[in-house]
Amino acid sequence: MLNSASISAICIFHAIALSSVKQASLYAKIYVDLKASSFDRKTRSLFRCHIYRILSRCMAYSDFSLEQLKSQFHITIRPQTLFAGVQPCVPGNWLVEMLSHSVSLAQRMGTEKAKSELIIAPILMEACKQAGEGVTFFSGTEFTVDESQGLKGFCDYLISRSPNQLLIEAPVIAIVEAKNDNINSAIPQCIAEMLAAQIFNAREHNPQSHLYGIVTTGSAWRFLALEGVQITMDTRDYTAGEIEALLGILTHILRNG
Questions:
Q1: In this predicted structure, what is the pLDDT of residue 5?
Q2: Would the pTM count as exceeding 0.70?
């Protein structure tokens, strides 16, 4: 009869062989559930550690689930109003004019790329302009921080408090994830990128007490904040139609984040 170590090794091999990270994760979970009664606590814990270590090598930000984030990084998530006292900002005329055409165009085109280019990027540009010098945002940039933990991949938008546009420098103060139509599906990815930014800032000797994440479809915007291992999710979403309130929040984040 195979001992527990041999069985663990066999299962890890099968997990690696599976083409989908999510399939591998599901396989590992099912195996642990089925075999829990025959393993002691120490063996089950060791098995899970092996699986996480193997899977993290082929994972990227977009592969995380909330369950994995909670287990691996010990985060907690709570709903709370984040920006009740933030004052609105008046958008520049160029942005008002552009959005009057681009919002309906992007919605008719119906792709994530169109919404990102025609709605999200212009709003972020205006927020950076109003925040003043020393704030830079990057689009579609690779942001690999710790491959061993699966913190690798590309961010739709990343904002740092640095004038350097050639490379990302600490501190990273906000992460923006664009999604075509389902905000909830992008929340785990956004949180993973926020955690990576937190590690990046600390590693670059520029830690921040908190940083922000934003998930948006262009039309709807949801804000998150990370402080330590606590994720706070705003209790309301904002729309592109609330452009003054939206710009007020974005500018507040860029100035004070």
A1: 52
A2: yes
CA 167 to chain centre: 19
Torsions phi, psi of 205, nearest 5?
Answer: 60, 35
Q: What is the pLDDT of residues 37-63, one digit of tens each?
A: 556 666 666 666 555 555 555 689 999
Residue the block writes with tokens 């169109």:
114
Task: Find all residues with CB under 8 Å of 23, minimum gap 6, and list them.
Answer: none
Residue 17 has pLDDT above 50, yes or no: no
Q: How far is CA 72 from CA 46, 53, 67, 99, 121, in A?
A: 14, 10, 9, 40, 32
The 10s digit of each residue's pLDDT in 205-220 is 999 999 999 999 999 9
For residue 155, what is the enclosing H or E element?
strand 154-160
What token pair was written down for 71? 């287990």
Instruction: Fill in the amino acid letter for 196.
Output: A
Handedness of CA 74, 150, 63, 232 (dihedral sign): positive
* Whether 224 contacts 81, CB under 8 Å: no
Task: Report the pLDDT value the prediction gives residue 58, as an integer from 0 to 100.
Answer: 65
How far is Cα of residue 184 from the mean position of the Cα atoms in its chain? 11
Contact 173, 161 (CB under 8 A): yes
Which pLDDT tens digit goes with each residue over 151-180?
999 999 999 999 899 999 999 999 999 998
> Which amino acid makes up residue 204?
E
CA distance linking residue 20 with residue 37, whole number of Å: 27
Walk me through the domains of the chain, giving residue ranges and CATH numbers. 4-58 (no CATH), 93-256 (3.90.1570)
Q: What angle do CA 210, 214, 216 make, to 5 degrees?
A: 175
